[in-house]
Design goal:
Two copies of one chain form a homodimer.
Chain A lengths: L2 E2 L3 H10 L2 E4 L6 E2 L2 E2 L3 H10 L3 E6 L6 H10 L9 E3 H12 L7 E5 L2 H9 L3 E4 L24 E6 L7 H11 L5 E4 L5 E4 L2 E4 L1 H12 L4 E2 L5 H10 L7 E5 L2 H10 L3 E5 L6 H4 L11 E3 L12
Parallel strand pairs in A: 1-16, 2-5, 2-14, 5-6, 7-8, 7-9, 9-10, 10-13, 14-15, 15-16
Antiparallel strand pairs in A: 3-4, 11-12
Helix pairs in contact in A: 4-5, 4-8, 6-7
Enzyme class (chains A, B): hydrolase
Organism (chains A, B): Ephemerocybe angulata
Pfam families (chains A, B): Hydrolase_6, Hydrolase_like
């Protein structure tokens, strides 16, 4: 059963126990374009106490630089090295874990942020924002109209609002090749836009998973790949690290898989009724607070 | 174990036992643009013997009229009432089984053949070939840019080579509505083009299945919906009916679900190695012949 924290003393004890704090962003730090009350004070408090802070988002359409711009716009202090998006994770996974030789290429279903992160890791890409592949024109496999590039050794798929049959068909052709890697930035089925739910990155890779009859390596939460990439970049002790999030099936699962403590906030997707009563999720966080902003009271303990 | 037929007497016995013959088309009657040797003679022989012949295809991009044009082009005699495509099946399912009131509408991910069949059944459609939805322009749910039609009561999804984020997002928005029907013409993961495999109708509906977390009603083989629609249109005795196909997981499963005899031909997808040896499929047809054309020898028995 999750421990519900609500007093300054409880918040202070939580701070004492954890040196590294991993945060999901949307629904935790902000909602849409509004910072959640008290969040900037809590982050300031953590930094004053020499805690390490890390921001972990499944957003696959933005590079870390672009993600950082959102922090700045909202007045939330952050450094690019503290921000991990699933596009960046995919790029580091390909360059470091797969150690893809530099002459090989990646076919991309995804947007400019994903391309930027791949290019920053020295990875050559095809597809993505290439105008030739952003089309609703008919596609066929006639070698006179399309010659597959023999150097493509991986297909990476993120959220792509210009997804189309040409991209899906090319990605499918490449991914069927013996030894071709199949990578998804994340498997979120939907994403919450300002006006409601839209299909997410997991829905964009669903045609490939179905046509190929196989699952991709997943980079985003709850996959451990994201934590492996963070571990490769910064040092932290899992026993003194806590993951803060608003989603049980991504954030809290991610922390649990990684052997981290987990803190659920109720300012995002998860409601009180999802964690209590007969329909409660089997995923139980270690701690629950109403809002991350509440932790600013720790200073008063 | 499947019975392998190879003599004139065996073919004749098969003809004697079955009054109604259901045929898959591609890989059975023809391959690409070539009629398989002997097939027109076999169809002529069946008609002379007063057998009922029915053509059953999962093709969801063509109306029955357009399908019929292919028969004519290849010199294979057929009547429009003998041809059942998954687009037609979806239309009849909506108009007859769901009995959708005429003032309600269907949102379509699919091509003109699917629209034609829906319109022929008096069903109003949105999406499909509407130029407004065949776009790679950004889409959002802001009610100032898109107002959902309150009369949409079903989403139907077939193969659509102009699939895009606007169509997927609108279909997703509609399909989430309480009571909205979710229908797929068929779930073929791929389809064999002249130059290789491309993503099939099942891959086009995969994003919706994943985002919604639910499966559609499926109209094409191996679903029983196709047979229900045929039953509603023609009379036949399942005990004296045989399904002829080249795919174990669609054609042969379809026949077995429906309590029909099943005949596998080896001129299409399924190879000898798929039905014999240690890796044989668990789906076992009643009979196997090398080619449908072989049955013309029955006349010599």
């Amino acid at each position: 059963m999750a421990q519900r924290l609500s007093t300054a003393e409880e918040y202070e004890a939580l701070l004492e126990k954890h040196d590294t704090w991993l945060f999901d962003c949307d629904g935790v730090l902000w909602k849409g374009d509004h910072v959640i009350e008290g969040v900037t004070q809590v982050l300031d408090l953590l930094r004053r106490r020499n805690k390490k802070v890390v921001f972990v988002t499944n957003n696959a359409t933005k590079s870390r630089k672009t993600l950082l711009a959102k922090f700045k716009d909202l007045g939330v202090q952050a450094h690019v090295d503290e921000v991990y998006g699933s596009a960046y994770t995919a790029a580091v996974y390909i360059s470091t874990v797969l150690a893809l030789p530099k002459h090989l290429k990646v076919y991309v279903i995804g947007q400019s942020g994903l391309e930027e992160e791949l290019h920053a890791e020295g990875i050559q890409t095809l597809g993505g924002t290439d105008p030739a592949d952003n089309t609703l024109a008919p596609f066929n496999l006639n070698p006179e109209s399309w010659k597959p590039d023999p150097d493509v050794a991986a297909v990476v798929c993120g959220l792509d609002t210009k997804v189309n049959y040409t991209k899906l068909s090319k990605a499918f052709a490449y991914a069927q090749k013996e030894g071709c890697h199949f990578i998804a930035t994340n498997t979120d089925s939907t994403y919450p836009s300002s006006y409601g739910l839209l299909p997410g990155a997991g829905s964009i890779s669903a045609p490939l998973r179905y046509a190929l009859g196989k699952d991709p390596v997943v980079c985003g939460k709850p996959s451990g790949t994201m934590l492996d990439v963070i571990k490769a970049k910064i040092h932290f002790d899992p026993a003194r690290t806590i993951m803060v999030g608003d989603r049980l099936n991504t954030d809290i699962e991610f922390g649990k898989h990684g052997g981290l403590a987990t803190l659920l906030v109720l300012t995002g997707i998860t409601a009180e009724s999802d964690i209590t009563g007969p329909n409660a999720s089997p995923t139980v966080p270690d701690y629950v607070v109403q809002s991350l902003g509440d932790l600013r009271l720790a200073d008063k303990a």
